[in-house]
Amino acid sequence: QSALTQPASVSGSPGQSITISCTGTSSDIGTYNLVSWYQQHPGKAPKLIIYEGSKRPSGVSDRFSGSKSGNTASLTISGLQAEDESDYFCCSYTTSRSWVFGGGTELTVL
Amino acid sequence: QVQLQESGPGLVKPSQTLSLTCTVSGGSISSGGYYWSWIRQHPGKGLEWIGYIYHSGSTNYNPSLKSRVTISVDTSKNQFSLKVNSVTAADTALYYCARDSSGVVGVNWGQGTLVTVTS
């Protein structure tokens, strides 16, 4: 299975909104609504911020939201803050009964 | 709050077997309801799911690694383990253990342990 496709980098100014895309296939994102998103700061373990496409774990800011259309999932961060500068990864369940991650997107807050 | 901690050798020689253990605290593996995964991250790159195990011993592996990987569980020690056979430099990575819920991988993560394959 191939990794999900994410842009290598995105950027935005404080207060703005940004969207990170995650493109898969009909064997993963297109079939299941089991997409999750993770935030990873340098030297730290990933942290789950979105699961089942659009749900937020307790304690995660409502500035983070997720959606899906066809074979593409998206993570939107609104009201961008300096602390949001991080790497973001998507993940989807697949028809092979396995999980596949995206290559990651580096978010820069200008 | 459940905590996970990876342990094992940081250096492994090519063609040998990589062995790691994840010790779980703050929750019991045998209580069920969760899956226990291994995930790795190559230096400067993305994440790769290796496989998971349920407390019953049922496993599922990444098809690309399946032939070389074994995940096992020891509920008496509240640990689960990873073995990767016939390692090469391509197996050099930061290895994480994680607790999954149904339909969600990586709800909780260990801090990760770096394994370098080198002669």
Task: Provide structural commentary.
- Chain A is an all-beta fold and 110 residues long.
- Helix content of chain A is 0%, strand content 44%.
- In chain A, a hairpin with a 2-residue loop joins strand 5 and strand 6.
- Chain A is globular.
- Chain B has 119 residues and is mainly beta.
- Chain B contains no helices and eleven strands.
- In chain B, strands 2, 4, 5, 6, 9, 10 and 11 form a seven-stranded mixed β-sheet that branches. In chain B, strands 1-3-8-7 form a four-stranded antiparallel β-sheet, with no helix packed on it.
- Chain B starts with a strand and ends with a strand.
- The mean pLDDT of chain B is 95.
Question: How are the elements arranged and paired?
Answer:
The complex is a heterodimer of chains A (110) and B (119).
Chain A: E1 9-12, E2 18-23, E3 35-40, E4 47-50, E5 64-69, E6 72-77, E7 86-93, E8 99-101, E9 105-109
Parallel strand pairs in A: 1-9
Antiparallel strand pairs in A: 2-6, 3-4, 3-7, 5-6, 7-8, 7-9
Chain B: E1 3-7, E2 11-12, E3 18-25, E4 35-41, E5 47-54, E6 59-61, E7 69-74, E8 79-84, E9 93-101, E10 104-109, E11 113-117
Parallel strand pairs in B: 2-11
Antiparallel strand pairs in B: 1-3, 3-8, 4-5, 4-9, 5-6, 7-8, 9-10, 9-11
Distance between the ends of chain A? 35 Å
Count all strands of chain A and give the number. 9
Q: How much helix is in the residues of chain B?
A: under 10%
Radius of gyration of chain A: 13 Å
- How far do the termini of chain B sit from each other? 39 Å
What would you call the shape of chain A?
globular
Major sheet description of chain A: 6 strands, mixed
> Which range does the strand content of chain A fall in?
35-45%
How many H/I helical runs of chain B? 0
Low-confidence segments of chain A, given as residue ranges, are: none
Give the count of helical stretches of chain A. 0
Radius of gyration of chain B: 13 Å
Q: What is the string of SSEs of chain A from the N terminus onward?
A: EEEEEEEEE
Q: What oligomeric state do these chains adopt? A: heterodimer
Mean pLDDT of chain B: 95
Provide the structure class of chain B.
mainly beta
